[in-house]
Write a structure and sequence with these properties.
The complex is a heterodimer.
Chain A lengths: L3 E4 L2 E5 L4 E7 L3 E9 L6 E5 L3 E5 L2 E6 L4 E6 L8 E9 L7 E2 L3 E6 L1
Parallel strand pairs in A: 2-11
Antiparallel strand pairs in A: 1-3, 3-8, 4-5, 4-9, 6-7, 7-8, 9-10, 9-11
Chain B lengths: L3 E4 L2 E4 L5 E7 L5 E7 L5 E7 L6 E2 L6 E7 L2 E6 L9 E7 L7 E2 L3 E5 L1
Parallel strand pairs in B: 2-11
Antiparallel strand pairs in B: 1-3, 3-8, 4-5, 4-9, 5-6, 7-8, 9-10, 9-11
Classes of the chains: A mainly beta, B mainly beta.
C-alpha cells in the first residue's frame, strides 16, 4: 500500500487565508522533509523536520513520530506561495531513500 | 553552503538510444541519489550511492545504470531510451542516512 498519504490534493485560497497540509505515513520514519516546487522548477527544501515543531516566517511544520504524521501550516498566504508542496519521509528500515507523497497543489488568488 | 549541478538541463534522444545524465555536488556529501519525477506524480528512486564506487538499486533501477567514480559526481545512464520514460530526472545528495537531502535543478528527458 501507499506509504505516504498527502492531503489535500489541491487547495485554492484567497490571499491572507491560512493553509494546513497533511502527510500520514504507514511506517516508522528516520527523517521527514517538506519541499516546494513551481511548475518546471526544482525541489526547494522548506523544512527538514524529523520530529517536533519548526517555524520559518509564515511557515510552521509539526511532525509527530508516534502518530506517524506531519503537517505544514502556511499563515497569511500570499500569491507567491502558489505551487506544489511535497512531503517525503525516509523509512527507518529498507533502502536509503525518500518516499514522496503525491503533492498538494496550492493556488492563492488575489 | 553548496550547490548541485546537473547537465544537461534538457536532453533529447531517439528511442533505443543510450543517454547519460551527469550530476556534481560541492557539499562534500557522502551519499548521492537519482530520482525520476513523472508528470503529475511524485518522485521515485532509481539509484543511490553511499560512498565513492558504491551503487545501490532503487525501486526503478531497471533500464538504468549508474556510476560513482568520484565523491563529488554521480552519473546516470539510460541504457535504451523509451518514450514512456520521458520525465524529469533529479539528483540529490546528503551527508548520511536520515539527513536532509538537497536537490539539483533536474534534467528533462524527451524521447523522440
Amino acid at each position: 500500500g501507499q506509504q505516504v498519504q498527502q492531503s489535500p490534493t489541491s487547495l485554492v485560497l484567497q490571499e491572507g487565508e491560512n493553509a494546513e497540509l497533511q502527510c500520514n505515513f504507514s511506517t516508522s520514519l528516520n527523517s521527514m522533509q517538506w519541499f516546494y516546487q513551481r511548475p518546471g522548477g526544482s525541489l526547494i527544501s522548506v523544512f527538514y523536520n524529523p520530529s517536533g515543531t519548526k517555524q520559518s516566517g509564515r511557515l510552521t511544520s509539526t511532525t509527530v513520530i508516534k502518530e506517524r504524521r506531519s503537517s505544514l501550516h502556511i499563515s497569511s498566504s500570499q500569491i507567491t506561495d502558489s505551487g506544489t508542496y511535497l512531503c517525503a519521509m525516509e523509512p527507518s528500515s529498507g533502502s536509503w531513500q525518500l518516499i514522496f507523497g503525491s503533492g498538494t497543489q496550492l493556488t492563492v488568488m488575489p | 553552503g553548496g550547490i548541485i549541478t546537473q547537465t544537461p538541463k534538457f536532453l533529447i534522444g531517439q528511442e533505443g538510444q543510450k543517454l547519460t545524465l551527469k550530476c556534481q555536488q560541492n557539499f562534500n556529501h557522502d551519499t548521492m541519489y537519482w530520482y525520476r519525477q513523472d508528470s503529475g506524480k511524485g518522485l521515485r528512486l532509481i539509484y543511490y550511492s553511499i560512498t565513492e564506487n558504491d551503487l545501490q538499486k532503487g525501486d526503478l533501477s531497471e533500464g538504468y545504470d549508474a556510476s560513482r567514480e568520484k565523491k563529488s559526481s554521480f552519473s546516470l545512464t539510460v541504457t535504451s531510451a523509451q518514450k514512456n520514460e520521458m520525465a524529469v530526472f533529479l539528483c540529490a545528495s546528503s551527508t548520511d542516512r536520515g539527513r536532509e537531502q538537497y536537490f539539483g535543478p533536474g534534467t528533462r528527458l524527451t524521447v523522440l
